[in-house]
Specification:
Elements lengths: L2 H12 L5 E6 L2 E6 L25
Protein name: Acetyl-CoA carboxylase
Organism: SAR86 cluster bacterium
Length: 58
């Protein structure tokens, strides 16, 4: 595959919201991926209340 085509694919990927693109042409194939710094956010219940089984009656 021509290097100019690969550079064009890189530019297209950079200008899009896609994270990866793969193109096959004949017996040649190229896969281009963005390096991302995405972090998965996991919400945690941070209440200081004891669970029901541990509550004492006052």
């Amino acid at each position: 595959m021509d290097i100019r085509k690969i550079k064009t694919l890189i530019e297209m990927l950079e200008g899009s919201t896609l994270k990866e693109i793969e193109v096959s042409q004949g017996d040649e194939s190229v896969r281009i991926s963005k390096q991302t710094n995405d972090v998965d956010v996991i919400e945690k219940d941070n209440t200081n209340e004891p669970s029901e089984q541990f509550k004492t009656s006052d």
